[in-house]
Amino acid sequence: MKYQTPKGTRDFLPEEMGLRRGVINTLVSMYGIYGFKEWDGPAFEYLDTLVGKSGESIANEIYTFKDKGGRNLGLRFELTTSLARIIAGNPQLKKPLRLFNIGKVWRYEQPQAGRFREFLQADTDIVGSTSMLCEVELLTMAAAALKKLKVSDSTILLNNRKILEAQLRSVNIKDDRKAGALRALDKLAKIGIGGVKREFESQGIPMEQFEELMKWVDIDGNNQLKLDRVGRLLTNDKVGMEGVEELRQITNLLTESSLGMPIQINFSLVRGLDYYTGPIYEIRSINQKELGSFAGGGRYDQLIQTLSGQATSAVGISFGIERLIEIIKKRKGYSDIISPMEVFIGYPNQDALPVAFIAAKMFREAGITTEIDLTGRSLGKQLAYASAINAKYSFIVFSAEEQKLKEMASQKEETMDVASAISEIVKKK
Amino acid sequence: MKYQTPKGTRDFLPEEMGLRRGVINTLVSMYGIYGFKEWDGPAFEYLDTLVGKSGESIANEIYTFKDKGGRNLGLRFELTTSLARIIAGNPQLKKPLRLFNIGKVWRYEQPQAGRFREFLQADTDIVGSTSMLCEVELLTMAAAALKKLKVSDSTILLNNRKILEAQLRSVNIKDDRKAGALRALDKLAKIGIGGVKREFESQGIPMEQFEELMKWVDIDGNNQLKLDRVGRLLTNDKVGMEGVEELRQITNLLTESSLGMPIQINFSLVRGLDYYTGPIYEIRSINQKELGSFAGGGRYDQLIQTLSGQATSAVGISFGIERLIEIIKKRKGYSDIISPMEVFIGYPNQDALPVAFIAAKMFREAGITTEIDLTGRSLGKQLAYASAINAKYSFIVFSAEEQKLKEMASQKEETMDVASAISEIVKKK
Fold this sequence. Notes:
Radius of gyration of chain A: 27 Å
Oligomer: homodimer
CATH class of the largest domain in chain A: Alpha Beta
CATH superfamily of the largest domain in chain A: Bira Bifunctional Protein, Domain 2
Number of domains of chain A: 3
Number of helices of chain A: 17
Structural class of chain A: alpha+beta
Helix content of chain A: 40-55%
Strand order of the largest sheet of chain A: 1-5-6-11-10-9-7-8
Shape of chain A: elongated
Largest sheet of chain A: 8 strands, mixed
Number of strands of chain A: 16
């Protein structure tokens, strides 16, 4: 146990962390370009705040403790609860608000492949607008971020809670069976039609209802056709028709060509038994289906109201960074999102150190990533180290009068001073 | 309590968080330029790991809890313990290692002005080199980061544990009184000479020893003179002379002109009763003395050994981000480190929305920070909002045929298409 992390948690060594930082920086920069502003909250909340909203099933997964005043606290298990608390507690904030946060969350789950007790979430939310343009903005931004990370071999799946509910109504599934039916439907991609059927059976839902429902889910064709057909079936269900109209607005603006990736209406998408009230969506990898979805979200127009009493619409999308990183690791040449080491500065003896140190300062002031030898080992060993860390260049300081720039890949070297080396490197960037 | 954060913790709303993100990005970018690589560890550790190293005084400040397996855990109260555990547990990592981490830590302290129970630390460390060039690198990087943040009105104070110990030996303070004497001396800047004298009295240390010690502390003059005088007094103390030699190496390379800020040897600097074994340093604001130090660190050559049994030298510097931000907030025009909003896209009616949406996509693909109206409110209200969020430009989409770029400060507007607007904005950046 001596050097171990607590069960279900991990250390990140520099190589792994370089990739994580690359992903985080890409997301933060894309969030910025789309006009989203950052918020942050504490790692723990009052237990009441966490449990009140989520109910008992999640309560078992919260790390709880007391502070010295005997207050019950818990580590946050998602970011949305804290965001909803902040919005409810700060009515002075002008809406609509575009917000993002990237932070760690904790859940007492059974650790398994790709599932940890401490993991990173990246959330973006728009608060205070009922416009479907919110959904459009979030999905466009997510697609742009994935393009930047070169994982565009993904599909956006889209559904609407209002349509799901209308479907359950139309096949006459009783109110007390609805949650069970949705939970079963949510597993379709994992357990197949046979599996869903068995779930319906075990919950005592009549088979005619199962078969009726599957006809809805199975509607084929492109997004417009799907919406047309469901629209015809739901003509008399006002809420259901609202859902159809919402998806029509979204898919009118979001085409495959505007996103750079497919968007598919999928009437079996449920997204757990969460707080969603309108459109819901997930992003799945096409070539790594086994990883499931790595991003998802939806509209939650009632969550903030349960905290504040004040009706406040909200819509969000969340990246599961851990899965996203798993996907990135499987693409070739992913090191393009890791900051490279540009220059290693070597010197043959201590007499050259003051000049080498000034050279390092000049490279760095020019914004060039630079490392200087700290060991006083032989110049040969210094250069072997420069190769090992994949430095693009070595700059060797023999004396105040003589310095050389060496390109590590080609092993080409040329005598030149710091200023010339800097302009050479900047030119080739 | 409904919307509150747990006692001693804070929410960060977008305006505040923009500044924090600006500071974090500046530090991360400067760490990168200096060749430091990021690591990360979990928010909590086994309680044994945390307490083992730090002893009882800190143990009272740790948030502790058990996991479901009954294991004793604690939220980390600093980053260095986790780093030492990682280094001890990963002997395969090639040294010297340049590492950094920016993360939250938690302490059960009495909340007071500028002191919180959850706060952010930014640590950089070099592991596996005894060279004083490590100290030189860390202090140069810290000064460069402060220059970038425009808080160069600071002083670096420098001392060495080896000299402090030699001083205590030379005035014959007994071993069991040393910790108390150092603790008293550490408060000199806060409580003055009279205060330190009273502390010595209350600890029963003879007054002759206090007066002897103060003569050392009081040595005046520039750094070279100070080292010369202390060197003469310590000639027969081998360890003390090592300390003098170490500071000589550091101050030979680090001059006021190379740092862009003063560096002062100060023989009363102690830095708590921590694990330091060699040079120690602090950075203090010149114009905001009341805030005390906002960065500090030193060499800790024995900490990793206590965990691994393997002698491993290490040296670090840590920024207290909370105090650093307090200092930045008091300088005029600090908004220069916050990312600005560049373009707001407005449109007079829903017919113009699809064109406006494509325009937004084009600005964003050009890397321009862009917000599009989500409300469908009147164009006048949209432009008032653009002013309120300090957007530099508005781009108004009347139709596919007619668009205008408006510079918000001058209210100057001109009819032009998206491509022209992008090149206009990029040109003026």
